[in-house]
Amino acid sequence: MDQAILRAARDLLVERGYSGTSIEAIARRAKVAKTSIYRRWKRRDDLLFRAAFAFDRGDPKGSGSFADRINHSVRLTARELRSPIARSALPGLVEACLRVDDPLPLGRIAEIEIASIGERLNESSSRKLTTKQARDEAALVYDLYHGVVIMRLLRGERLSAAFVKRTLEIIFDGVLK
Amino acid sequence: MDQAILRAARDLLVERGYSGTSIEAIARRAKVAKTSIYRRWKRRDDLLFRAAFAFDRGDPKGSGSFADRINHSVRLTARELRSPIARSALPGLVEACLRVDDPLPLGRIAEIEIASIGERLNESSSRKLTTKQARDEAALVYDLYHGVVIMRLLRGERLSAAFVKRTLEIIFDGVLK
User: Fold this and answer.
1) Higher-scoring residue by pLDDT: A3, B61
2) Closest to A90 (Cβ–Cβ): which among B94, B106, B136?
3) Closest to A70 measured CA to CA, from A156, A153, A146
4) Is A177 on the interface with B (CB under 8 A)?
């Protein structure tokens, strides 16, 4: 049922954008009761965020090194944010994140990936990092590669293979020394 | 008169957000005719973008080196994006940038700053860069420092002095070698 709900949310996001995608409309499209949706996702923002960025966030194949992990994440982020769903949902997600009273828990979602980057960073870095240093550095890496992809989209510039390659080089050179 | 218009636009952005700030309302608030606004800004998006990011984008004091320039820009970007105006306008600006039929000319506005970064990069880099290489590298630098600040805001994380310092280090280490 989760899959049917997410699929309905994705279709509606593309058709109507973030503000036009209500829980009511999702329930109708997915042919489930509204209560079934609320049982699984307490807030509309959480469901829409998950629907817009539903690609497998699992770990990459390979050695599981810092380089593998970042390589995987940068490519995934570029792919996700280029999708019609993300383009349609992004303004609403930005608004939900900046809401002062009840912000989108992007922080919490991001923290899982940041922790995973931090672990690998600690194994790969030639510096000896404290837990806090590794976490701060991983958060910066996370923000750098998500941010650079968002800026490309906003400036209407292509996410070329050369761009991805150079972004990875700068992050590796700047972070791993 | 330009200043009165921009001030009215800024006040309305904070009060009503992007979608609520019409040219009509700006004209009323600034006590000017709508035609006076359209003479100066052909599109509402252009005016609102300029109003939201109106800080002096001029060159930094100092030697005018690549490091000075980026230092100046990162701090300015952090200050701008933290302001209540930017927070209020950001979702609407993102939407305007992603519009397929008539996108916000962020690309054109950014190009001026990218050109300035590119010039200084060519003087500071130990590599010999072609014009195209310098431009591409400058665009990546531009996207990195704007993007990382935006991601911090979206995750609700503080823009600390340590964060700014480390961002600058990574950009310098990764780019200038």
Assistant:
1) A3
2) B94
3) A146
4) yes
CA–CA dist A67, A110 (Å, integer):
19
Does B174 contact chain A (CB < 8 Å)?
yes
Minimal C-alpha gap between B145 and chain A (Å): 8
User: What's the Cα-to-Cα distance from B136 to each of A60, A151, A166, B142, rounded to whole Å?
Assistant: 29, 14, 10, 10
Query: How long, in residues, is chain A?
Result: 177
| Any A CB within 8 A of B94 CB | yes
Are the CB atoms for B8 and B29 separated by under 8 Å? yes
Tokens 């008169």, located at residue: B1
What is the pLDDT, as a whole number, of residue B12? Answer: 95
Cβ of B156 under 8 Å from any chain A Cβ? yes
Q: Chain B: residue nearest A177 by CA?
A: B173
Count of A-B CB contacts under 8 Å:
131
pLDDT tens profile B13-61: 999 988 889 999 999 999 999 999 999 998 898 899 889 886 555 655 5
Q: What is the pTM of this model?
A: 0.89
Regions of chain B where pLDDT drops below 70: 54-63, 177
- State yes or no: pLDDT of A68 exceeds 60: yes
